[in-house]
Design brief:
Radius of gyration: 23 Å
Distance between the termini: 60 Å
Number of helices: 21
Largest sheet: 6 strands, antiparallel
Length: 451
């Protein structure tokens, strides 16, 4: 039945492409297109165009193709694009503008599936009488995610709700996309310097089943909503109903972070950045969970001044909070205590047994990352993130060798990615925030005198 449904052209509309061969061909066109344009660029260099002109031209065309292919495919391809988008602040300015535009669009836009498709999925998940649960239902989606789209509706009790409906065939498409993207991971690496693409894809693949079952997301969201009930800075919408492929939650209206990044005033950007950082650091302590999809499309500035948070499909479970050793390492790096830092890194599994890494080299690698905590306030900028990305991504530099020699234990993988992603969003916001006070309050181990 499922295959028959998705193979009918009259009902598929512009929804998620299902045929594996077609999806593979589209994904393959990305790195091949980028490589082809690079070869063409050398030709234009020979005819007199400057490196900057060629680079800007290649970036603009590659970015447009990236959006077209990843946005149309949705599934794992779009999820990968959304994940990459938080790191655009690390791309050098002369290359960033086209990527910034294309990747930002990926955070909130994709071709919708037809009304007929969404109705069929709603009937399958909520029963044939699904319409009786709503007094109003807008067939035109208000937003698109990587594996589903959101409709605005009114629940039978009068509450405004958001109805997330999974794209038919999203499971097969997601698995296919991630397999193909992993094949091309080295070529995609060039798009975002300093970002490890291969582990990022491996992590997306490992968490795939959780994201495909919206009941997991509903459980996560209920836990977050309970933990932040009555919070003065953060609002989590309550879950109204859930099924494996349909999720109904309270509706939230607000200003998307992408709009604030593009044109918000300094006070607004600083306030949103502060709330975002506090949400990230306080969640493990308050909820035993960490929101693990920190791209701007998942956050809104509400009319009452709070930060609205959505999309809890990707969540790390931290029942004991963030490991205290992480706070200890951060503090030791900040204080320049290289020998003690090296000892704690070895104890925590970040340095492999028998490694010939020197403590002073490891401190030189990690120390600059703690710069936001050196003073009461820190101004997160694209320039600062670009410097960090270039420092650790320069294959000729000592930091590249140290970074490749350090080990990232599995229990720290998601924490590391969320911290890096949240930092990327702060740099996009160009926010100045009291980072040290937030970390001192919420990061176990950081403020301990005897580390």
């Amino acid at each position: 039945m499922t295959t028959d449904f998705h193979d009918r052209d009259d009902e598929s509309g512009p929804g998620i492409p299902r045929r594996t061969a077609a999806r593979t061909a589209k994904l393959a066109s990305l790195p091949l297109g980028i490589a082809g344009r690079a070869v063409g660029g050398w030709g234009r260099r020979l005819t007199g165009q400057s490196a900057e002109e060629v680079s800007a031209n290649l970036s603009a065309k590659a970015a447009e193709q990236l959006f077209e292919v990843l946005g149309t495919l949705k599934g794992g391809a779009m999820k990968f694009g959304q994940t990459l988008s938080v790191f655009e602040a690390a791309v050098p300015d002369e290359m960033a503008a086209p990527y910034r535009d294309a990747l930002t669009r990926l955070q909130a836009a994709a071709p919708p599936m037809s009304a007929k498709q969404s109705h069929r999925m709603l009937a399958e998940q909520l029963g044939r009488g699904w319409r009786d649960r709503f007094t109003e239902f807008d067939d035109d989606p208000t937003a698109a995610a990587s594996i589903g789209q959101v409709h605005r509706a009114v629940w039978h009790d009068g509450r405004e709700v958001a109805v997330k409906v999974q794209y038919p065939g999203a499971d097969l498409a997601l698995r296919s996309d991630l397999r193909q993207l992993q094949r091309f991971s080295r070529l995609f690496q060039a798009l975002v310097p300093g970002t490890e693409v291969k582990p990022l894809l491996a992590e997306l693949s490992a968490r795939m089943d959780e994201e495909l079952d919206y009941r997991h997301e509903a459980d996560n969201q209920r836990a977050f909503a309970a933990a932040f009930e009555g919070d003065e800075r953060v609002r989590i919408p309550h879950v109204v109903a859930s099924a494996p492929k349909v999720l109904v939650t309270e509706w939230m209206s607000g200003t998307p972070l992408a709009k604030i990044i593009a044109g918000g005033d300094k006070a607004t950007r600083d306030s949103v950045g502060t709330m975002l950082a506090e949400f990230h650091y306080s969640s493990p302590a308050k909820a035993g969970l960490l929101h693990s999809d920190p791209h701007p499309g998942n956050f809104l500035l509400l009319e009452d001044g709070r930060l609205g948070v959505i999309d809890f499909g990707a969540v790390a479970k931290l029942p004991h909070g963030i490991p205290p050793n992480l706070g200890g390492m951060t503090r030791l790096a900040l204080d320049g205590r290289s020998a003690e830092l090296m000892e704690l890194l070895r104890k925590s599994g970040f340095v492999r047994p028998g490694s010939d890494l020197r403590a002073e080299d490891v401190l030189a690698y990690l120390g600059p990352f703690t710069e936001p905590l050196a003073n009461e306030r820190f101004h997160f900028t694209r320039k600062w993130m670009q410097q960090q990305a270039m420092r650790v991504g320069d294959t000729r530099g000592p930091d590249f060798r140290v970074g490749r020699s350090l080990n990232l234990p599995p229990e720290y993988l998601l924490i590391h990615r969320v911290t890096a992603g949240s930092t990327g969003v702060l740099c996009q916001l160009d926010a100045e925030i009291p980072a040290r006070a937030i970390v001192e309050r919420w990061q176990p181990g950081f403020a301990d005198e005897a580390i």
